[in-house]
Amino acid sequence: MNTFSPGFHGRTHRFEGRLPPGQYPTEDFPVLSAGPTPRVSTDSWEFSITAEDGTAARWTWEQMMALPQEEPTVDIHCVTRWSKFDTRWQGVPLDALLDAVETSGDFAMVESYGGYTTNLPLEDLQDGKAWLVHSFDGYPLSPEHGGPARLLVPHLYLWKSAKWVKGIRMMPQDDPGFWESAGYHNHGDPWREERSWTD
Ligand SMILES: Nc1nc2c(c(=O)[nH]1)N[C@H]1C(S)=C(S)[C@@H](COP(=O)(O)O)O[C@H]1N2
Ligand SMILES: [Mo]
Questions:
Q1: In a domain, 6, yes or no
Q2: What's the pLDDT score for residue 9?
Q3: Ligand 1 in reach of 32 Cβ (< 6 A)
Q4: Is residue 9 included in any domain, yes or no?
Q5: Best exposed site among 25, 37, 86, 169 by fewest CB in 10 Å?
Q6: Residue 115 alpha carbon, nearest atom of ligand 1
Q7: b/e map of 94-132 (b: 16 or more CB within 10 Å)?
Q8: Is residue 61 part of a domain?
C-alpha cells in the first residue's frame, strides 16, 4: 500500500520540495546492512576520534550520554531510492565531539564495529550537519538500525550514516571507504544524485 497516496503527487503536498530527484517516499524503515549485525553492549562500547598524529579523544557510553543532547528531526535518503521524512533521533552533535581533538586533516574515515567504513570531508561532519545518535523515535536504536549508536549525516545518502559506529579517524588526504571503494560516489549528495562514481 502506498501510504502517501492520495495527494502525494499533487503540487501542494506537505513534503513539496523535500524529495530529491529519483527518490520515492516511504513510511517503512528498511534495513540495509552489508554483513551481519554486530552486537555491541553499552558496557564495552567506546567511541574515539583520532587525529593524524595518533592522539585520540575517547568516550565511554556513560560519558557520551552525559554530554548535551539534541533531538534532530530530519529527512533521510537511501541511494536505493527510498526517502523517509521527519525521522526523529536523539544524540550528541558531532561538533561537540570534534571540539575535543586538534586536527589539521580535511578528511575523515568513519569506522564501525564489524569493519564497515565510510569517508567524508571533515566539513560534512561540522556545523550542525551530523550527530552521533543512540535513539530513534523515542526508543533506544535497535541493533538492526545501528544500535547502540550510529552516525547520522542526513544531508548525504544514508550509506554515509555508519551504523554501529566506533570511531572517526582524521586524514590529511581523502581515502575511499567500503561502498566508495565499490563504485559508490565519493561524496553522495542526494540533491545532486551523486549515486555512483560515474555520476
Ligand atoms: N556499519 C554499517 N553501517 C551502514 C551500513 C552497513 O552495512 N554497515 N549500510 C549503510 C547503508 S548502504 C544504508 S542505506 C544505511 C541503512 O540504514 P538502515 O539499515 O538503518 O536503514 O546504513 C548505512 N550504514
Ligand atoms: Mo544504502
A1: no
A2: 55
A3: yes
A4: no
A5: 86
A6: 1
A7: beebbeebebebebbbbbbbbebbbbbebebbeeebbbb
A8: yes
